[in-house]
Amino acid sequence: MLRTIPGKQIAEGLSEEVAREAARFLAETGRAPALAVVLVGANPASEIYVRRKIAQCRKTGIASIEYRLDGATSQADLLALIARLNADPSVDGILVQLPLPGHIAATRVLDAITPGKDVDGFHPVNVGRLSTGTDGLVPCTPLGCMMLIDTVIDDLRGKHAVVIGKSNIVGKPIAMLLLERECTVTVTHIATQGLPDIARKADLIVAAAGSPGLVRGDWVKPGAVVIDVGINRIENADGTSKIVGDCAIGEMEHAAAVTPVPGGVGPMTIACLLANTIKAARSLHS
Ligand code: NAD
């Protein structure tokens, strides 16, 4: 029988821990930990993500400060807002929702966030800390993946992990985290030759390609663990749509455990954002 990893439930547990930490921070400092959320323009998917993040902040006692800027906001104005938030001692974390409108260079904006408030873990300083195995803010989705992996694999040392996808927000950071735990890591991508054969050698597959059903049952060796990061919307014949992952979930009975989509990695991402906000608040006030 297919064993799924209950990401939603594990995320709820983490959120409860965050809520306890937020209450402790409030009792100690007289104010709640605070996350500034910056949204530029009216991208419908971004609206949904931002709404979810703010709702979770509210639930856990983290103050969220919303900045909803017009889609025509200039890069200079956005950078000026980031500078103000960096300098504001009542703001612990800064999140700029991506994608940004085309006239704004996302890297310029992300690089302007002070590393201590970079709760997405995208700043080069935090990327550098991750790659050197030193403590910093780690991107939320890879952090959540590691927590899910730890619920099903006792000791990662010496395990062969195959990561599918090499993006800066998922593939590369998860590869770094797995390497730090002494996995043997193979990072694959769109130009990789013979991916099914590479995947078949894995004890752990992390699929983050954004390609629905890419990982077939015969790519997965019996007893392997599959972490499905993909979020893909596909249209049904009747005009409705549904969200599926990067794995053909119906073909995974022989896997040791698989994350479902939805309800696997997704909820962990938001819970880890809140956990990073607490971590940022603690270290800014230590
Ligand atoms: P991306 O487009 O930046 O990167 C995709 C990577 O996958 C690239 O490195 C590309 O080379 C590789 N790739 C694409 N098709 C491939 C194929 N057929 N074979 C092998 N490699 C292939 O995407 P991303 O931002 O890293 O996101 C990846 C997926 O994860 C998307 O579906 C995204 O929606 C999802 N995602 C989920 C969460 C979450 O919270 N669950 C968070 C971030 C991203």
Describe it for me?
The chain is α/β, with parallel strands linked by helices. It has two domains: 30-115, 3-Layer(aba) Sandwich (Rossmann fold), CATH 3.40.50.10860; 140-267, NAD(P)-binding Rossmann-like Domain (Rossmann fold), CATH 3.40.50. 40% of the residues lie in helices and 16% in strands. It has nine helices and ten strands. The protein has helices spanning 7-29, 44-60, 75-87, 106-112, 124-131, 140-150, 171-180, 195-200, 265-284, and strands at 34-40, 63-69, 93-96, 160-164, 184-188, 204-207, 225-228, 232-235, 241-244, 257-258. The strands form three sheets. A five-stranded parallel sheet has the order 5-4-6-7-10. Helix 2 (44-60) crosses helix 9. The longest helix is centred in the N-terminal third of the chain and has 23 residues, at 7-29. The protein starts with 6 loop residues before the first helix and ends with a helix. Bound molecules: nicotinamide-adenine-dinucleotide. Nicotinamide-adenine-dinucleotide binds next to helix 9.
Number of helices: 9
Query: Reading side by side through the largest sheet, how are the strands ordered?
Result: 5-4-6-7-10
Bound molecules: nicotinamide-adenine-dinucleotide
Question: In one word, what is the shape?
Answer: globular
The poorly predicted ranges are none
Amino- and carboxy-terminal Cα gap? 48 Å
